[in-house]
Amino acid sequence: MASIRRVAVIGSPGAGKSTLARRLGEILGLPVYHLDRLYWNPGWREMPRDRFEAMHAALLERPRWIIDGHYGNTLEARLDAADTVVYLDFPRGICLRRAFLRTLRRESRPDISAGCPESVSGLPSFLWYIWKFRDKNEGAI
Q1: How many C-beta neighbours within 10 Å does residue 23 have?
Q2: Which of 61, 85, 112, 137 is most open to solvent, judged by the fewest CB atoms within 10 Å of its CB?
Q3: Cβ-count burial 100-117 (b if 16+ within 10 Å, e if not)
Q4: What is the dihedral of CA 90, 96, 100, 102, to 10 degrees?
Q5: Which three-class secondary structure state does DSSP give residue 68?
Q6: What is the pLDDT of residue 4?
Q7: How far, in Å, CA of 10 to CA of 3, rounded?
Q8: What is the pLDDT at residue 22?
Q9: What is the pLDDT of residue 1?
Q10: CB-based contact 30:63 (threshold 8 Å)
């Protein structure tokens, strides 16, 4: 039986990707990389796309990893490099509720860069993104 060395954890925001990735990392002894932590700079400033894609490509070259995050522009390369893919496909309502409550509680998130607090002001657009996620990504997996 082949060992699990490269795991891509993908799905909608609010599906539990980061929590699952951390737990799998503990169980399998694999390093965990959260794409949100790499992509977002303090103040929710986006990393330049070319720099993010270069960092992502460097991660894929590593022999062992769990990478948590969907990020459509890098998804195909991640799926090609992974030996295991976990797709969390929960109903919209569950993802919406989790994201909404997480934002209201302003939970600390180890999968997000420092200086990127949950914000109620950005909640409507984030919830709309989650609502449209399945329609937008259907067939991409």
Answers
A1: 13
A2: 61
A3: beebeeeeebebbbeebe
A4: 10
A5: strand
A6: 94
A7: 20
A8: 95
A9: 41
A10: no
pLDDT at position 67 is 98
Two tokens at 97?
């509720």
Tokens of 116: 């990127």
Distance (Å, whole) CA 19 – CA 76: 22
Q: Which amino acid is at 55?
A: M
Ranges of residues in the chain whose predicted pLDDT is under 50: 1
pLDDT at residue number 2? 62
Q: Is the pTM of this model over 0.85?
A: yes
Domains along the sequence of the chain with CATH: 6-137 (3.40.50.300)
**Token pair listed for 68:** 């948590």
